[in-house]
Amino acid sequence: MNRYALWKYLIIAVSLTLGLLYTLPNFYGESPAVQISPLRASASTDTALLQRVEDALKQANIATDGILLEGNSVKARFIDTDTQIKAKDLLESTLGNDYITALNLLPNSPQWLTNLGALPMYLGLDLRGGVHFMLAVDMNGALEKSFDRYSTDIRSTLREHKISYAGLEKQSNKLIIKFRDIQSLTKAETELKSNYPDLGLSQEQIDNRYHLIAVIKPEAQKRMQDSAVLQNITTLRNRINELGVAEPIIQKAGVDRVIVQLPGVQDTAKAKDILGRTATLEIRMVDDEHDLDAAIRGKIPFGTELHQERGGSPLLVKKQILLTGEHITDAQSGFDKDNQPAVHINLDNSGSRVFKQLTRDNVGKRMAILLIEKNQTEVITAPVIREEIGGGRVQISGRMTSMEARDVALLLRAGALAAPMDIIEERTVGPSLGAENIARGFNSTLYGFLAVAIFIIIYYTAFGGISVVALAMNLLLLVGLLSILQATLTLPGMAALALTVGMAIDANVLINERIRDELRSGASPQLAIHTGFERAFGTIVDSNITTLIAGIALFAFGSGPVKGFAVVLCLGILTSVFTSTFVVRGIVNLVYGSRRRLDRVPIGQLWIPTKDPSSNKTITPDHDDTDKGTSILTKNTKEPLRKESQTSPVSNPQEVITKVKYKIDNNSQSKSSEKSVSKAKNKRKSSDIKQSQ
Predict the structure, then answer these.
(1) Where does residue 327 rank: exposed (0-12), middle (13-18), buried (19+ CB within 10 A)?
(2) Nearest alpha-carbon partner for 567 in 643, 630, 489, 661
């Protein structure tokens, strides 16, 4: 009856093993480190950079706990945070502006755990310490930039179609295009409607002057504002990810708010510099007419600039900017027709029109694509224009690796902020406060666990101990899941851990009370265990599903700390259902299921109601009947009858039914025999009386 198949025990063993493996890295902790990475992802990081870092630290007598080359960065581990900060300042001054030096934390887990992919959970800002910013996106600024772009594009369109106009004036929320006659206005309106669907156009006449009023449609404004916020978030994330900050949090808050959290960063000025990093793209023509060698010697011709091409070779570039990155709608890395790395760029309507004219007028000439970042200008590539390029899709290739192509696409796609941003809230959490929060959260979970364990063992004895073992396994699986998912643990998340302890034990209480109810009704111990688990399963699932629905709602509609709480809560519900219904029953079946004769269930003090034979009233004994066998007094017998389960345990419910039916048949037979005997006695008495008469 109470037996588990081998595959069920294998599932339990595999689950607990994985939970233990992925929980272990959280006990090793993390050590402070300094991460050195190139300013651009295309730059290589090799053993030479590793040797430079090691030599600089040795000369300054700064002790390290290990230096390693990992990916495209060099990481130096230190014993304490003071040494970490000294090393960071030293390396920043030694390596210069070509490398990014950032504070980081490295796990102290053994290498074999790291090879298995077992990493510790990320800690939130309130546990690790760091910098918190709330930024407001200037929506008016975004609209202003849109009007500036539209004014330039409208002038180009009117010149291209040879439509004469008297002037273009920009006001707060509209553009006024002036014409001298109605024919020019009508022709301009037709062309602008076809080229700029997001603009609402209306005519106006003032003093023999014809005006065309252009405004951005409300739905287009809403779309522009949402796009500006999302593009700014993407830009910030890409900028910050290059610094190697461990698990930065960048998320939208409201309509025009962005929250940025940088765990581990204590330098507020440095963090502001990170947020202020932007990149812009410019397309210019290469000056092949003048002498490059003379320009290198200092004789730079008028109207040109000397820049470095990617790879180190100098290049003369004209100052006139033909196209900017504002017209780029998308940029993805890929391959050209020769299977060489390339960057595919999509331009908007105005950008595609300008680029088409640019390539048509400069076939056979070189075009330079420049990237400006932190006031440093670099020529990404300078391809030769082979033919006119239209349609708004541009391909950039030549002397580029796959990593360089991805880097260029990233910078082109989200290199500049779509709208200005202002810091409206700034907060710094120190590492000591974070360590205090970790200690308090850990103690609350530990003391809550111990209190629950003591109570449940006292109340349910051996079955309470099994429940405590399952509760410990539940916490193990929960922490393991959080580590596998690489979730960010915050202070509300630790509160959810403590709450999970109380919620998980509730399922075990339901199971134990169901078993007690079955024992009170007279079932055998094995049958009581089996029936208790079966009947409690539905109740446990129903109650936890309702809580899970509430947790999902918190995750869907909450933000920040609320989401962290909801994630731990939902995962804790799933692990508690698994351990209480699957793991606990497996332990019980392993300990008690193999016993052919189970006289009692060690599930605490059990009160079974009995009846007074004289008054037929229920009497509740104040002693434990589970150890001695429960006495049941009936009307038909003066001696108490021992429970059938105490003398002959039943392994089958059908056997119980059969035995009860047998008792009833025996009682009815005995009653009928007594009646026949009394009838025979009465007959004899009547016959004796007749004979005497």
Answers:
(1) buried
(2) 489
- Please tell me the distance from the alpha carbon of residue 239 to that of residue 519, in angstroms, as a whole number: 66
Could you tell me the two tokens for 238? 């890409």
User: pLDDT higher for 458 or 47?
Assistant: 458
Average pLDDT, the chain: 77
Quick check: helix, strand or coil at residue 246?
coil
CB 603 within 8 A of CB 515: yes
**Would you tell me the crossing angle of helices 431-484 and 6-23 to the nearest 10 degrees?**
150
Asked if residues 388 and 356 have their Cβ atoms less than 8 Å apart, the reply is yes
- DSSP per position, 161-212: TT---SEEEE-SS-EEEEESSHHHHHHHHHHHHHH-TTEEEEEEEETTEEEE
**Residue closest to 349 by CA, chosen among 368, 382, 326:** 326
Residue found under tokens 């294998």: 10
Rounded to the nearest 5 percent, the helix, strand and coil shares of the chain are 50, 20, 25
DSSP state of 80: S
The closest alpha carbon to 300, from 284, 316, 282, belongs to: 316
Q: DSSP alpha helices (H): ranges in 521-621?
A: 525-557, 561-578, 584-592
Chain-centre distance for alpha carbon 635: 68
Average pLDDT over residues 533-542: 90
Q: From edge to edge, which strands make up the β-sheet containing 249-252?
A: 249-252, 257-263, 130-137, 421-429
Q: Is 612 exposed, middle or buried (CB count within 10 Å of its CB: 0-12, 13-18, 19+)?
A: exposed
CB 636 within 8 A of CB 667: yes
Q: What is the pLDDT of residue 314?
A: 85
pLDDT recorded at residue 315 = 85
Mean pLDDT, range 542-560, rounded to an integer:
87
Cα separation, 678 vs 51, whole angstroms: 114
> Could you give phi then psi for residue 565, rounded to 5 degrees?
-65, -40
Amino acid at 599: D
At residue 312, the 3 state secondary structure works out as: coil
Element (H, E) at 222: helix 218-241
Q: How far apart are CA 32 and CA 635, in angstroms?
A: 80
- Contact between 260 and 250 under an 8 Å Cβ cutoff? The reply is yes
In angstroms, the Cα distances linking 510 to 431, 461, 467, 537, 542 are: 43, 15, 11, 9, 12
Most confident of 12-16, 116-120, 366-370, 596-600: 12-16
Please provide residue 421's backbone torsions phi and psi, each rounded to the nearest 5 degrees: -130, 140
Instruction: Tell which phi-psi region holds residue 651, choosing left (phi > 0), alpha (psi between -120 and 50) or beta.
Output: alpha
pTM of the model: 0.60
363: which 2 tokens? 């076939």
Q: What are phi and psi of 129, to 5 degrees?
A: 90, 155
Tell me what pLDDT residue 82 has.
81
HSE at residue 73, side-chain half, CA atoms within 13 A, is: 22
Most confident of 63-77, 565-579, 622-636: 565-579
